[in-house]
Amino acid sequence: MSAAFSQGNVKTRFCPSPTGLMHLGNVRTALFNDLLAKSANGQFLLRIEDTDRERSDERYTKALMADLTWLGLNWQEGPQHDEGNGPYHQSKRQSIYDDYYQRLVTADCAYSCFCSEEELALQRKIQRSAGRPPRYPGTCRNLTAEQREEKLSQGIQPTLRFAVPQNKTIAFDDLVRGHQQFDSNDIGDFIIRRADGTPPFLFCNAIDDALMGVTHALRGEDHVTNTPRQLMVLDALGLQSPTYGHIALIVGNDGSPLSKRHGSRSIEELRNEGYLAGALVNYMSRLGHYYGHDDLLTLDQLAEQFRIEALAKSPAKFNLEQLYYWQKQAVASLDVRGFWLWAGSALENRVAAEHHDLFVATIKPNVMFPRDIEHWISLLFTTDFMLAEAQHALLKDVPTDYFKQAADFVAKNGCDYAGLVAHLKSTFNIKGKTLFMPLRIALTGETHGPELAKIMTLLGTDEVKRRLANANL
Known about the structure:
mainly alpha; elongated
């Protein structure tokens, strides 16, 4: 491990805005920050960036904390874990931001801007028509004190802009993308305080990272252009900046931003559908990070193998089939108790206690979600199972007396699957699907599924005989 990641000296963070339910994209950011912290025996900080008064909602804060906890992404500092750097809701830190605003104004690093949105839109239109990139031209930068007072007397509520120094190079080494360099002349003076007095992301995010001692911050590549602005603010205030790493975004198979039409759902929706936390964590950890194998790992194991240099620079494509793969792996890893905890008590209570272990051993390779468990419970633990017309149609080419021979064998020998198969094979001189498929359809109504030997044991001799007789109709 490099010096930058020396043991115990790393603090990462996840700072969501509680304006909606969390999806794979923002949770993957949390996961990578958690893995980076764990890999260095460091700390993972949670901060709630709720300065958007209109859209922020406490119910989303509770939901995102529940999602993180369910996934095992436990923060060591933040809400419910105050380490002396709180409050951890930005809506409660306004006095802190006000203090730093005043410091910037006193140092002539910030100024009031009275431009209306209409004026700014017109300026951008003119710049674009002239082939220049749209940025603030500094209209209010050189207003006199008298001019500012006159604007204020008119009731205009100004924003506060950072005065970008000219002819400066802002450079930083990105953990993922390598050396980055920006010319300050290409960056217009940007707003650090809205007209209502609240801080935009650029400002409060940078201030809080510095004050809370964040050393490393992994975030989406859409924030790359924010970084030079935040570095300039922190430099003007004499505050330490974290080392940034900008990870590639998640996209659909068509290369467009991930959305519901690609199969993306919120973490809450995925949990309610029956996805296991281990499946999501293993899937997300490989969306933009190369592990070199497809072994199902715990969070600690994922952290042990997490490497910054293994983070990809190109977009990570969401693949529903890959998510299914990890769900199957996670289900396969469950022990009997874990299986029933996942399935839920409503399903567990529908299976007799003496069948619990065998039922799990029988169906586990054939289920991905609790709804699949319910399907097999409904098929196997009912006394009125009957084949539908379409299922009978699949049996039209079965040899005459096939089911009678099968039922007679079971009546004499019980649920001896191997013996039954051998008997039918020698009696009718058949093999392969012709031998096995009629039995499967007769006993389950399905053309594929769990091992028939275990199915027969679960059904019991009397029910097997009844189903075989029903198939012979």
